[in-house]
Amino acid sequence: MTRFEYKSIPAPKKGEKARGVKGSDARMAQAMTTALNDMGAQGWDYLRADTLPMEERSGIRSKTIHYYTVLVFRREIEATFEATDAPVEAASSQTDAPVLDAVDETDTSETDQTTRTSRRDLTATRDH
Fold first, then answer.
1. How many structural domains compose the chain?
2. Which of 10, 12, 57, 60 is most buried, most CB within 10 Å of its CB?
């Protein structure tokens, strides 16, 4: 089974200046490209961008909600165990495992009667 680890970083809030990049939208795209390429160089795959609310203090008593965008990345975790191709039946058919006999519980009237009698005796003892 493939397992992943995740990492989130704040999305860029300002555009990035670069040669030949003009306009605020192009600068913002340049900042995103740089962030994505930096994480990709470290082995992280871009997964998605999420906008999350966060409650922050805006004074002594008041709180406001601000929304932040994070970029979510993931990468595969190397397995610490090796998968075997052996069938499951072979592992579960051990000969030294104890075998339990089935218990027939169809006739429980005698046991139930004994339990009821014991409870009555206890109740009578407490009342006196």
1. 1
2. 12
